[in-house]
Design goal:
The protein is α/β, with parallel strands linked by helices. It has nine helices and ten strands. It has an eight-stranded mixed barrel with strand order 1-2-4-5-6-7-8-9, surrounded by four helices. The radius of gyration is 21 Å and the shape is globular. Bound molecules: ligand C2E and calcium ion (3 copies). One calcium ion binds next to loops. Keywords: Phosphoprotein.
Length: 277
């Protein structure tokens, strides 16, 4: 009996060769997403650890893909950064986030809205003017906004980024160091800058209660924040154990699935009212 026919047509069950979990998109796809306004901002609450009050929200971009559904930023932010698209992407995110901020403030909520910036955004001095003008156009002030900065890869020079960040701070935007503990060593140079907030990466928060190594990195980050006069934020608070742990640690703000998942803008108001009731 010739088995080759059988073998040729044999398909392994999906668990033998699971489909790639994440599709990474091409530059043209991402460009089209920006141009066709398929990006939407989700927002995740940041709460005061001491009293539970909602102090702000973080803007997290998603892509409403016409075929693939809701696509997460790790599938397209890197592509945008590598292909000169991150400035256009960031401008879309900022313009939506700032108009949304205005809507929330007018509705009587007192929130500070955070947006994520790539280091590539800070490569040009014009960025300061862009953000400043965008705030004025939306009818908000820099004090309403937090700019979260991550260093996801090594960059050639920090000279321009440091100047841009300094100028943004002088305009009174709040500055936050994101993913602290995971970045490259040059991020340490940024500690010379007037950052207002340090976000301990979720990798050092979730599970730290029962892991000595995580716990010491977490505590070291917190004490650094305190010494430098920055607010500390614990992200990735996923369960009761995380929450109890960060509460006893003296951390200022918390963010994570245990509190709330990122949600569309129109769900934020109701969520806050319920949470604070
Ligand atoms: P990030 O700034 O560190 O944002 C936190 C990420 O952790 C978000 O993933 C959020 O949904 C997720 N998260 C929140 N709470 C929990 C939790 O309790 N457990 C776990 N496991 N995860 C939690 P998301 O939305 O997929 O974003 C991933 C990253 O993409 C962000 O990390 C940020 O670096 C980047 N990103 C998102 N939006 C933008 C943007 O508009 N511009 C730029 N440049 N980067 C963005
Ligand atoms: Ca962030
Ligand atoms: Ca982060
Ligand atoms: Ca991150």
């Amino acid at each position: 009996k010739d088995l080759s026919i059988l073998i040729d047509s044999w398909e392994p069950p999906s668990y033998v060769n699971p489909p790639a979990v994440k599709k990474i998109y091409g530059a043209d796809d991402v460009r089209a997403a920006i141009v066709n306004h398929q990006l939407v901002n989700y927002y995740q609450p940041k709460v005061d650890v001491a009293n539970g009050k909602v102090m702000g929200v973080e803007t997290l971009v998603r892509w409403r893909h016409p075929q693939d559904g809701l696509v997460f930023p790790d599938q397209f932010i890197g592509v945008a950064e590598d292909n000169g698209l991150i400035n256009d992407l960031t401008r879309e995110v900022i313009s939506d986030a700032f108009s949304q901020t205005k809507i929330w403030l007018d509705a009587g909520l007192s929130l500070r809205v955070a947006v994520n910036l790539s280091m590539e955004n800070l490569d040009s001095l014009e960025f300061t003017d862009y953000v400043t003008t965008a705030a004025a156009t939306a009818g908000i002030i820099p004090d309403d906004i937090v700019l979260e900065v991550t260093e996801s890869r090594l960059i050639k020079s920090l000279t321009t980024p440091m100047e841009v960040l300094t100028r943004l701070r002088l305009k009174r935007f709040h500055l936050s160091i994101d993913d602290f503990g995971t970045g490259h060593s040059s991020l340490m140079q940024l500690l010379d800058l007037p950052f207002n907030e340090l976000k301990v990466d979720q990798g050092f928060v979730h599970g730290a209660a029962s892991n000595e190594k995580l716990c010491s990195i977490y505590n070291a980050s917190l004490s650094l924040a305190q010494q430098l006069g920055m607010k500390s934020v614990a992200e990735g608070v996923e369960d009761q154990a995380d929450w109890d742990f960060i509460r006893s640690s003296g951390c200022d703000l918390a963010q994570g699935y245990y509190i709330a998942k990122p949600m569309p803008a129109d769900e934020i108001h109701d969520w806050i009212i319920k949470w604070e009731a």
